[in-house]
């Protein structure tokens, strides 16, 4: 197991290198002039002299590969550059905004699991009956409704009309309820459908018929033979959803005024703040890879066959 973890971690660096260079090149080779954006954010008149000095200070007068390797050498030291808009180090801003995004994504993932898994099991155990039809409608609505529009509806109903929950900000446990629900709606709907399909697959396997023939109690059948075996495929969705929830929280954080990485990155897109966008992509890529590594470890914990294959 330790060797597997080390091998997966070893793939993280090449992946980060490829993604970083690809995004670095897109920013530099895209439309517009980075030097003009820098001078605009610094509120410096774009004279010929100012353009020449800024281009030299930013290293934009050098070839693209040289620029990237200078950025990479600094990033390996923990220096992701300085925001052109705020003048603060990008690493400090990431450390400031990341906890809020992790809190929102973690709460949304908890809602996804607590809502999607029980409803999926309930639907599978009542196949083609009214609970199954009801959960299908719920999952269809959850996938169809955009999270930002759902966020506006939640604010209108629970914050404006009823006055039960705060509409914006991050002030106490109550403020995370609405953004977490808006963020988790689509993921919970997908999880519901995956769990339902997985449980239905387990219900048709031979080992479950043998377990019933042995006279095992219904609770034991459900917990050890149905749910445990059915959870392996949806684990893939959990790993993917966690990365998706962090990335998809960009719009939700803006709707609810949540001070996280997504809202910070959207502001950077509007300002064309290149160092911030580069740091955001690197962090999100690392989080996504680490989430998938965690899922692989959960695979081995849930399914002994995977442990045996890796040992072999």
From TrEMBL:
Topology of the protein relative to the lipid bilayer: Multi-pass membrane protein
Record bears the keyword Glycoprotein: no
InterPro entries attached to this UniProt entry: BPD_transp_1_N, MetI-like, MetI-like_sf
The protein's name in its UniProt record: Nickel ABC transporter permease subunit NikB
Listed NCBIfam families: PRK10352.1
Entries under CDD domains matching the protein: TM_PBP2 (cd06261)
Pfam families: BPD_transp_1, BPD_transp_1_N
Keywords attached to this entry: Cell membrane, Membrane, Transmembrane, Transmembrane helix, Transport
Annotated PROSITE patterns: ABC_TM1
Lineage summary: Bacteria, Pseudomonadati, Pseudomonadota, Alphaproteobacteria, Acetobacterales
Record has Cell wall biogenesis/degradation as a keyword: no
Ranges that cross the membrane: 104-125, 137-164, 176-200, 221-242, 280-302
Limits of the ABC transmembrane type-1 domain: 98-299
Gene behind the chain: nikB
Gene3D superfamilies with a match to the protein in the record: MetI-like
Main localization, broad class: membrane
Protein family per UniProt: Belongs to the binding-protein-dependent transport system permease family.
Organism: Roseomonas haemaphysalidis
Subcellular location, record wording: Cell membrane
């Amino acid at each position: 197991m330790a060797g597997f973890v080390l091998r997966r971690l070893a793939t993280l660096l090449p992946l980060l290198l490829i993604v970083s260079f690809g995004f670095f090149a897109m920013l530099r080779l895209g439309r517009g002039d980075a030097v003009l954006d820098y001078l605009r954010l610094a509120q410096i008149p774009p004279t010929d002299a100012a353009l020449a000095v800024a281009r030299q200070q930013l290293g934009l007068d050098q070839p693209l590969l040289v620029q990237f390797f200078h950025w990479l050498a600094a990033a390996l030291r923990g220096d992701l550059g300085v925001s052109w808009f705020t003048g603060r180090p990008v690493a400090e801003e990431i450390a400031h905004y990341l906890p809020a995004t992790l809190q929102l994504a973690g709460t949304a993932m908890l809602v996804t699991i607590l809502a999607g898994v029980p409803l999926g099991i309930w639907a599978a155990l009542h196949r083609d009956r009214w609970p199954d039809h009801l959960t299908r409608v719920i999952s269809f609505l959850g996938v169809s409704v955009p999270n930002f529009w759902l966020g506006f509806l939640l604010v209108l109903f629970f914050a404006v009309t009823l006055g039960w929950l705060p509409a914006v900000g991050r002030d106490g446990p109550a403020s995370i309820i609405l953004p977490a629900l808006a963020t988790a709606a689509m993921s919970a709907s997908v999880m519901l459908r995956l769990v339902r399909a997985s449980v239905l697959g387990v219900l048709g396997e031979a080992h479950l018929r043998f377990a019933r023939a042995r006279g095992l109690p219904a609770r034991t059948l459900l917990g050890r033979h149905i749910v445990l075996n059915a959870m392996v495929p949806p684990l893939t969705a959990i790993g993917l959803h966690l990365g998706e929830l962090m990335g998809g929280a960009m719009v939700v954080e803006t709707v609810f005024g949540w001070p996280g990485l997504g809202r910070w990155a959207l502001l950077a897109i509007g300002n064309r703040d290149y160092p911030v966008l580069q740091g955001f992509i690197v962090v999100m890529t690392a989080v996504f890879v680490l989430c998938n590594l965690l899922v692989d470890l959960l695979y081995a914990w849930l399914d002994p066959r995977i442990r045996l294959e890796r040992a072999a």
